[in-house]
Design brief:
Length: 283
């Protein structure tokens, strides 16, 4: 298949998984290319996500790589077949690619788990809250760039709303509930938005109270997106160079462990809802 113009998180992940399968056999790219009557450049393009790959070739490569995980193979075939043009594509060339990649990962996730300590998670933010955060983080951001960021963040909520919402669990700190990123009215609207999402069953929210002893995870922000099979789970973490997308099992295991450690410091969903109500009244 010819090289694609735009890289997407889904195609990059497909290529990465095919590379993992090849490397597990010790096979060189040129050897894999020979199996497809292609050249090593084509294999490199497929594995980097620059070029697409047909379902037939996915199956052939998996067979030659001695992959016996049928569920994984079928999931990779679906990824190769998928030609979905998601809503996020309208922002290509308008917003940085990481915005689109994050929305794509959320859209295809089978479940989402998130830890955000100092801010309200993006999937629960109101437009005014998001606008205040973006305006503060990037001073002087023109409306032509600010407005698309806010719109994109609001549209991301489609992942946890609608007829087939993705199960979503998030953990926040009580400080995040109390910090006023703008004014009192924005803070109240934001807390009510969280309570509405809880009431509608779109989110399971757990709060770490300010008087919790032994919590040293202030920098624990992360998102964990479940794949169609565990091998295709994806982790997202902020890094100095931007958001890092994680697919290596040792790192994914660390994220799962981190989530459960933070979870132990949080209140139950019911107690967390009560705390949010209390903070709302105190505002």
């Amino acid at each position: 298949m010819p090289p694609k113009r735009h890289l997407t998180a889904r195609r990059v992940r497909l290529g990465a998984e095919l590379r993992k399968l090849r490397e597990a056999t010790g096979m060189k790219a040129r050897e894999a290319a020979a199996l497809l009557c292609a050249d090593s450049v084509q294999i490199s393009q497929i594995e980097s996500g620059v070029a697409g790959v047909s379902p037939e070739r996915v199956r052939r490569l998996a067979a030659h790589y001695a992959c016996t995980d049928e569920a994984l193979i079928e999931a990779l075939v679906v990824m190769a077949t998928d030609r979905t043009r998601g809503w996020w594509e309208e922002y290509r060339g308008v917003l940085p690619p990481v915005f689109l990649d994050t929305a794509e990962v959320e859209h295809h996730a089978t479940f989402l788990r998130e830890v955000v300590i100092t801010h309200i998670p993006g999937l629960l933010q109101t437009a005014d809250y998001a606008r205040a955060v973006y305006s503060f983080m990037v001073p002087g951001l023109p409306k032509s760039e600010l407005n698309p960021r806010v719109e994109h963040r609001m549209k991301r909520r489609a992942a946890i709303e609608g007829d087939t919402p993705t199960p979503y669990e998030t953990i926040v700190h009580e400080f995040a509930l109390r910090i006023r990123v703008s004014d009192r009215s924005v803070a109240l609207a934001q807390l009510r938005q969280i309570l509405d999402q809880i009431e509608q069953g779109n989110a399971t929210v757990r709060v770490i109270p300010t008087d919790q002893d032994g919590f040293a995870g202030a920098g624990a922000s992360m998102m964990y997106a479940g794949g169609p099979v565990p091998a295709l789970d994806t982790g997202l973490r902020d890094a100095p160079t931007g958001t890092a997308f994680i697919d290596a099992e040792p790192q994914l295991k660390q994220l799962r462990t981190l989530f459960h450690r933070v979870e132990k410091a949080a209140l139950s969903p019911t107690a967390s809802r009560d705390l949010i109500h209390r903070v709302t009244k105190e505002l």
